[in-house]
Amino acid sequence: MNFLVVTDDEQWQQAVTPWIASKTENTPHRFALHSLKEQHLKPQLTPDVLVMLSRHFKKPAEHQQLACYTQLPCIFTSPESIDADIAPILVDESDSSEIVIDPKNGAIILQNRIVQLTDTELKIFQYLYEQQGQAVSKPELQQQILQRDFGQYDRNLDMHIANIRKKLQQAGLARNLILTVRGRGYSFNHEHLQFAQPDPVSNV
């Protein structure tokens, strides 16, 4: 996996340089460090993850040099916490069934793929995952996650599920990690923890 580390702080740049050298030498991943104060950003790798160390910017879209990376998973960190913040991504790739749920960065990590979700989507995914394959009814999900009663014509929960499936698919993962159990609700499908080629997005 390729990490593009960017910063607009000279002290932070100096502080993180030894860390990047160590990770490059001791892990199979590749890292590149660039200053946002440079006029042009020309990374020597094609990044899979953007790591942002900034005291001023809250998201890549706020900086013109990062406009082309707004679709990448992004980790906001500092030199003091970068090791802990990136650790969930550097999981053992030999265990294809390992799922890391990273609430701080709003992401799930599976098979060296990062899927960024909204806060609500992450809570839904985690709740289903923790049920170990047991079907969860829509009223239960609605009450536990959205904190309101489920109405007969309420499609809000279905839209969240559809968005999660779409993001899984876009990351090259099986969209049917979340199954629709007819007449019962949804369940997490532990049997499909494997890569899946993207296919046309269908309705929930």
TrEMBL record:
Residues 91-190 form the OmpR/PhoB-type domain. InterPro entries: OmpR/PhoB-type_DNA-bd, Sig_transdc_resp-reg_C-effctor, WH-like_DNA-bd_sf. This is Winged helix-turn-helix transcriptional regulator. Residues 91-190 bind DNA. The keyword Repressor does not apply. Keywords: DNA-binding. Pfam families: Trans_reg_C.
